[in-house]
Amino acid sequence: MAPQQDPIERFLSQAGEASKVILEVAQKGGFIHVFSHLDADGIAAAGVMGKALARLDAKFRIRITQQLDEKIIDEIIGDKPQLVILTDFGSGYLDMLQQKLPSSKVLVLDHHQVNGTISNPNFVQVNPHVFGIDGASNVSGSGIAYFVAKAASQANVDLAPIALVGALGDMQDKYDQRSMQSLNEIIVNDGVAAGLLKVEKDLTFFGRETRAIHKTLATTTNPFIPGLSGEEDKALVFLSNLNIPIKQGEKWRALRDLTDEERKRLCSALADHLLSKGLHLAVENLIGYVYTLTKEEPNTALRDGREFAVLLNSTGRMDRPSLGIAICMGDRKAALEESNKILEDYRKNINKYLGWVNEKPERLRELQNIYVINGESFINEKIIGTVSSIIVSSLANNEKPLIAFANVEKEQAAKFSARTTEAAIRKGVNLGEVMHLASDTYGGKGGGHNIAAGAQVPIDKVELFVKSVDELIGKQLRGEKLAGNDNA
Ligand SMILES: [Mn+2]
Question: I want to staple 191 with a disulfide (CB 3.0 to 4.6 A). Which of 3, 177, 197, 331 is the partner?
Answer without folding.
Answer: 197
